[in-house]
Every structure is written in C-alpha cells, then in structure tokens.
Amino acid sequence: MLRVKKVHVKSYGCQMNVYDAERMADVLAKEGYVETARIEDADLVVLNTCHIREKAVEKVYSELGRVRELKSERASAGRDTRVVVAGCVAQAEGAEIVRRAPVVDVVVGPQSYHRLPQLLAAAGPARPALDTDFPLDDKFQHLPARERAAIRGRGVSAFLTVQEGCDKFCTFCVVPYTRGAEVSRPVAAIVAEAERLADAGVREFTLLGQNVNAYHGVGPDGRVWTLGRLLGRLARIEGVARLRYTTSHPRDMDDELIAAHGELPALMPYLHLPVQAGADHILAAMNRRHTADGYRRLIDRIRAARPDIALSSDFIVGFPGESDADFAETLRLVDDVRFASAYSFKYSIRPGTPAADLGEQVPEAVKAARLAELQARLERDREAFNRTMVGRTLDVLVERAGRQPGQLAGKSPYLQGVHFEGGTAAVGDIVPLAIVAAQPGSLLGRQAGVRDGDRRAPVVESPHRSADAA
Ligand code: SAH
Ligand code: SF4
Ligand code: F3S
C-alpha cells in the first residue's frame, strides 16, 4: 500500500505568506500530500520565508539547521525528508541558500510556486532545483481551485490576494525586489475565488496586497477597477459578511476608497495605514512621498467618512539620520492620531536597498531606547481604545473555541480578539456581545442573542500551519 505523504508548511512574515502557504498546500495536495502540524512527521518541509528584516532572515538559517538534524534522524529510521525554501528569502538569496544549506532540495520564489511539483521532480540528491523567475504569465492561473474541504479546515476568516508586488521603492524596503512589480488580479478571478470561499463557509475576507489600495485590476467591463469598486462588488456576494484589506499606502487612499468606508456596511471600520515616521525630512529620505501633515489630513478625511474607524500603523525607529527631534515628531504624530494598534520596528539595514548606503546610521542602543518609548506610547493608546469598548455591544464573528472549556473566541469589527461563554453560538455566527471587560490580550464579552440569518454550519479550524509575526 502506498504510504500517505505528509507536508509541513511553516510561514514567516506577512499575511501574504500565509495565503501563499495555503496555495502551496493546495498545489501539493494534488500531488498526494496531506498537511501535518508535526514537522517530525513530514516527508516534505516547506519554509515560506521573509526577508524584511535581518532577524527574519536569521530565523530561516537557524530553522534550516534544525531541519538538517531532523532529516538525519529520520534517515536513520529509513525515512526520506525533502526540503523546500520558498518566499522572499528564496527570491533574494536563492543561490546563497543552495550554497550554505545543502539540506535544501528546492528553492522557489513567490511568483513561481505553482511549479513546485516539477521542481520537486527535477531535484535529486545533491542536485537542488532553483526557480526565482518572475514569469510573465500569472501564477494564479496555474494554481488549482481551492477545495471545499481545505477551505473549511482553515476557518471562517480567509485571506485573498488581489494585488501583488510594489512599485513604491521606499528606500529601506526589500519588497519591490522580492515580490516584483505591482500586478493586480482581474476582478472576475477574485470574484470567483471569493464565491468559492463564501460557498464553503468563509464569512470574513481580508484582501491582500503589498500595496493593496493601488489595486487596478481589469473589470468584467474591460475597464480598470479601483479597490473601492472591487470592495463594492465583493460585498454583494451571498455569505460575504465582512471585508477588510491590507496593506495600504497613504498615497493611494483615493476618494472612492474613502467613500466606501462610509457606504459599505460589510467593510469593517479598521484600517492599517502605515506612516513609518513623523518627521518630514525622514519621510522624504524614506521616499514615502507624503508629509506628516498630509497623513494627518488624510486621517481626518477617513474619519469624516467613517467616524468610528480604528487606525493602525507601522513605524520604523532609527532610520539613518533620525535625530532626537525627528523621533519626537513621530511621538507627536502618535499623540495626534491615537492608533488603536500598531507595529513598530528598529530600522534594519537591508543590503541592496538605497538606505543601506546612507551615512549616519543610528546606534543600536539609541534605536532600542526609541523603540521602547514608542511602544509604551502605542500600548497606552491601544489599551485606552480597548477600554472604550467596555459597556458597548459589538458584533463578534465567532472563529474558534476559546482557551477555557465552554468558551468561544472571535473578532470584533475593530479586529480585537473577544472571548465569551459559548451559549448557543457556533463558529461562523456573528453575535452581538456586551463587552464587560478589557483584558490585556482580548476583550471579554457576554452573549445578548444570536442574529437571525447569521447562522452558518460550524467550521473547524485546523492547527496545521504556523506563522510568526513579521
Ligand atoms: N507594504 C507595506 C508593508 C511592507 S513591510 C507598506 O507599505 O507599509 C511591513 C513593515 O515592515 C513596513 O511597514 C515597515 O514598517 C517595516 N519594515 C520594512 N522594511 C524595514 C526595514 N528595513 N527595517 C525595519 N522595518 C522595516
Ligand atoms: Fe515596502 Fe514601501 Fe512598498 Fe510598502 S510601499 S512594500 S514599505 S517599498
Ligand atoms: Fe512579506 Fe516578508 Fe516578503 S513581509 S512580502 S514575506 S519580505
């Protein structure tokens, strides 16, 4: 009898890598691989990597060290283990990986993973296969349609890539090099994928793109559609209860998209809109192409369209040339906007990017102190925002069992985790919950009642994929 082949996919970095990992698992399922959460059981290990900061890259090489040990343990038990490195490190350092890590069989970039079966067939012992092309044809056309069972296993909230790549070339960032130029998927392909997901029980859709609000896909009418228009189309699909999108660039928040926030009930009142820094000359050196006040004015316009919108951002501290006064401008911006949540990072030199060659690199200790100060301030605002929820009733999309027996957990419209005693709710329901407390990691809710027409068959979430935050 043929033994079932098992694959373990581990993703690092951003949500698009999570999406790509799912699609790679779909490709491999066609080859007879079933997913396993246990790397020790895997006949095939796929590391879906991130190149954004030096630490992310170090993680990959240290994981490859562990995989090498695992491979030799399995070999002594007579079992073979094959290893794939995919994602942005594969794209950026493919040849280097092949040289440094002989354990690797296949190196495949983010635009060519639909060719995984051929690459695995071509690779042999001491003969790794490498594919880091940016093919002209679109990988999505070659990916198998997502199977109902696989979708259901992944829960009621799904990622859906609508745009990929970046033409912005911020001077600190590797993404334009690892993901390539901006490409938008056609509207019809996105609608078809969303319908398939909705039909399998997905309620919440997070549209993904490195620069998602620069979306400019071809519509069924042959014209170029914006993200605002696409969102309006997706909101009409039966079963689509919630829409989100990430990550946006401030320069691409057009009027139609801002208006959509006021007009589409399915579009959730939460927006991740990275600003990176608060001093104009740092923003200019980063090539962000907007000022701090430009960002403030943009936030005012978005809040005018959707007054309760929760905002989130990314920040970089210690960009080359950043002075104490510049950093104070970042803090001032934070105080003005009051973000509901945020990610913040120390600037990390990325070889090959323009900022890597700038003089005036900021000392590590200064970066660390600034990061601590910024994070304390952001945490203050996050907690304050969460406290304003206490006493309110929020619609919560039930996603999974909670930590305690009888508990369920889900997400508020503002992307906050909420847990509550199960009652009559099922995974996939959207239930109004009275928020009774704001705890450090999540809100505590109490069930008031299940909405008519919001019942869906339960979907069980599988623990088959691990993701580390970028
Ligand atoms: N496309 C998105 C995010 C890309 S990467 C955008 O335009 O904002 C996610 C975040 O990582 C960035 O927003 C930035 O804050 C951070 N980042 C990117 N390059 C970095 C670097 N070299 N050092 C530190 N942080 C970085
Ligand atoms: Fe990187 Fe800037 Fe593009 Fe975002 S917009 S992916 S930060 S280059
Ligand atoms: Fe994402 Fe990291 Fe690549 S953030 S686009 S996986 S470099």
From TrEMBL:
[4Fe-4S] cluster 2 binds at C166, C170, C173. Residues 387-449 form the TRAM domain. Its cofactor is [4Fe-4S] cluster. Residues 5-125 form the MTTase N-terminal domain. Keywords: 4Fe-4S, Cytoplasm, Iron, Iron-sulfur, Metal-binding, S-adenosyl-L-methionine, Transferase, tRNA processing. Its EC number is 2.8.4.3. Gene3D superfamilies: Methylthiotransferase, N-terminal domain, tm_1862 like domain. [4Fe-4S] cluster 1 binds at C14, C50, C88. Residues 449-470 have a biased composition (Basic and acidic residues). Pfam families: Radical_SAM, TRAM, UPF0004. The keyword Transferase applies. GO terms for molecular function: 4 iron, 4 sulfur cluster binding; metal ion binding; tRNA-2-methylthio-N(6)-dimethylallyladenosine(37) synthase activity. It catalyses: N(6)-dimethylallyladenosine(37) in tRNA + (sulfur carrier)-SH + AH2 + 2 S-adenosyl-L-methionine = 2-methylsulfanyl-N(6)-dimethylallyladenosine(37) in tRNA + (sulfur carrier)-H + 5'-deoxyadenosine + L-methionine + A + S-adenosyl-L-homocysteine + 2 H(+). Residues 446-470 are annotated as: Disordered. GO terms for cellular component: cytosol. Binds 2 [4Fe-4S] clusters. One cluster is coordinated with 3 cysteines and an exchangeable S-adenosyl-L-methionine. Residues 152-384 form the Radical SAM core domain. InterPro entries: Elp3/MiaA/NifB-like_rSAM (IPR006638), Methylthiotransferase (IPR005839), Methylthiotransferase_CS (IPR020612), Methylthiotransferase_N (IPR013848), Methylthiotransferase_N_sf (IPR038135), MiaB_methiolase (IPR006463), rSAM (IPR007197), rSAM_horseshoe (IPR023404). It is found in: Cytoplasm. Monomer. Catalyzes the methylthiolation of N6-(dimethylallyl)adenosine (i(6)A), leading to the formation of 2-methylthio-N6-(dimethylallyl)adenosine (ms(2)i(6)A) at position 37 in tRNAs that read codons beginning with uridine. Belongs to the methylthiotransferase family. MiaB subfamily. NCBIfam families: miaB-methiolase (TIGR01574), MiaB/RimO family radical SAM methylthiotransferase (TIGR00089). This is tRNA-2-methylthio-N(6)-dimethylallyladenosine synthase.
